[in-house]
Task: inverse folding
């Protein structure tokens, strides 16, 4: 695929099973390493035998030495934290058709979560009483997943330009996934009256909830990733 065709093709969004607790540590260690403080990375890898083993299996001969790793930040974060099945392959979440419908939404840049965030509103019959906290926490978790690793949140594009066009937009821990699923099932939000796709918000909520439930059943966090 040439560069012009690739640029005009909307990215495919995936929700990957992810170790969100570890990802916080790995992300911080990568950022500190690029700033010249490599000790945090060394301490993390030496203290986590499973992480050390995984990176070694992927061809990094001295994973505790940050300066010896030639990978970009997105590839390193994803490889370190993606949850694997017994065959060593990424653990799939939900049914294939659900993943496909979520993956390339028919609006703007193809982001289902982007559309959802743009066209949900507080349900005033709930939030004007005791539901505002639920709505605010729902938005916070959605933004964390959709944008938590992007320049606006981190101050750099380190996780936005990975090998093969991979971009990690954000991630959640297993506890945050459970919290988000509960808030999504509440009545604290509603669709905007002017959303451009009739039933679009409801459609996103349906497929997104299914994927959140799949992660919750497996007791894993998740990351939002795009690739071309």
Result:
């Amino acid at each position: 695929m040439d560069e012009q065709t690739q640029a005009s093709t909307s990215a495919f969004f995936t929700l990957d099973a992810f170790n969100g607790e570890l990802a916080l540590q790995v992300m911080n260690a990568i950022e500190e390493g690029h700033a010249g403080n490599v000790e945090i990375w060394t301490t993390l890898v030496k203290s986590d035998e499973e992480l050390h083993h995984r990176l070694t299996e992927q061809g990094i001969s001295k994973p505790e030495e940050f300066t010896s790793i030639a990978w970009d930040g997105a590839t390193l974060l994803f490889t370190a934290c993606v949850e694997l099945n017994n065959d060593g392959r990424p653990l799939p979440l939900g049914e294939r058709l659900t993943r496909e419908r979520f993956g390339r939404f028919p609006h703007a840049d193809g982001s289902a979560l982007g559309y959802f965030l743009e066209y949900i509103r507080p349900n005033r019959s709930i939030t004007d009483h005791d539901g505002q906290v639920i709505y605010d926490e729902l938005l916070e978790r959605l933004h964390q997943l959709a944008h938590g690793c992007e320049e606006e949140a981190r101050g750099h594009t380190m996780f936005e330009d990975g090998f093969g066009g991979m971009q990690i937009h954000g991630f959640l821990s297993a506890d945050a996934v459970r919290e988000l699923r509960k808030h999504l099932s509440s009545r604290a939000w509603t669709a905007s009256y002017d959303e451009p796709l009739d039933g679009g918000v409801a459609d996103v909520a349906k497929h997104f909830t299914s994927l959140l439930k799949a992660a919750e059943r497996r007791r894993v966090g998740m990351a939002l990733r795009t690739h071309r």
The chain has one domain: 11-227.
